[in-house]
Amino acid sequence: FVLLLFCFLDLFLWSLSVLTHDDLIGHADYDAFVDLLHDKVGFPLTIVDALSRMVSFSLQSLWRRELLKPPERDSCLGEISTDLSESECQQTCPHLEQHLEEGRLDQYVYFIYPPFISTQTGVEVYEELLSGNYSDVMLEKLVRAYCEGNIGRARQGDLNDLSACNDIAFWPMHPMLERLYQFKLLTGTIVDFAWPDDHTVCYSQTPHPFNCTGHRPYDLQPFRESTLFGELGDTDAWLTNHRIRELVNPNHDLVPYVFDNFDYAHCEQLGYDYEALL
Question: Using H for helix, E for strand and C for coil, what is the string for 7-21?
């Protein structure tokens, strides 16, 4: 049940736009992304738009292969200067120059947008970028935008997407989020429970062809009612995301546990009085 709840919280908090895993473009906005890669470098808007939706994945992918080094710890906590030369919040690709001399530019392009991503997006970015329609100068500018530019100027890691359970910090974090979610339900501080049942449930600047299976409210999870309540005979239905949201609502006695407190001492130290909401 704990694993089931963690998966659900990822999906439901995403639907509330309370993103636990940074998505899309990080600190760089969409217009700046288009201005850089489309207007200045010259890539087609269809390619730039597809790239913009995968920035978090791309930076994570480069980081995992030790091609990208994220900004130093805490360097991105304050206001980020638009002038990179004045900012400490900068990622780098420490081996880029050597790899360019060795002719390994396509390796960076591959990890920015691997071919398998096209099966989800319907846009064959990797194939198009290496089709010969774009010069090495343009491709180098693309790679440098990820390595040295404003794109996603934030520390990247496994917690960026739904592979987050690879990071050990995932496991103590999600019970905290469930407790906060129940706190918000009990205090009435969630007022909008809208959960789109179409493609817009995928977080995006504009509608896009991503396959959102699993994120919609009535998509099925690989768990049955008996996972929570024991054997139910022929009525043992598959759980939907919406049903799980109903079950974890603390205003109903539907799950066999409660949280013993809603203390947030670390928040109180920053001036947030949670007890005033109870």
Answer: HHHHHHHHHCCCCCC
pLDDT tens-digit map of 155-171:
555 666 666 777 777 78
Alpha-carbon span 45 to 38, nearest angstrom:
6
Query: Per-residue pLDDT tens for 102-124?
Result: 999 999 999 999 988 877 677 88
Query: Which residue in 276, 247, 249, 248 sits closest to 264, CA to CA?
Result: 276
Centre a 10 Å sphere on the Cβ of residue 40 and count the other Cβ atoms it contains.
11
Contact between residue 225 and residue 239 where contact means Cβ atoms under 8 Å apart: yes
272 Cβ partners below 8 Å, 6+ apart?
Answer: 264
Interatomic CA distance for residues 194 and 47, integer angstroms = 31
Q: Is the pLDDT of residue 235 over 80?
A: no
Nearest-angstrom CA–CA distance, 244 and 1:
10
Q: Which residues of 197-217 are buried (b: 16+ CB within 10 A; e: fewer)?
A: eeeebbbbeeebebebeebbb
SS3 41: coil
What amino acid is encoded at 72 in this protein? E
Lowest-pLDDT range of 14-28, 66-80, 239-253: 14-28
pTM over 0.70: no
Q: Is the pLDDT of residue 2 over 80?
A: no
pLDDT at 1: 41
Amino acid identity, residue 241? N
Q: CA quadruple 30, 34, 37, 41: dihedral positive or negative?
A: negative
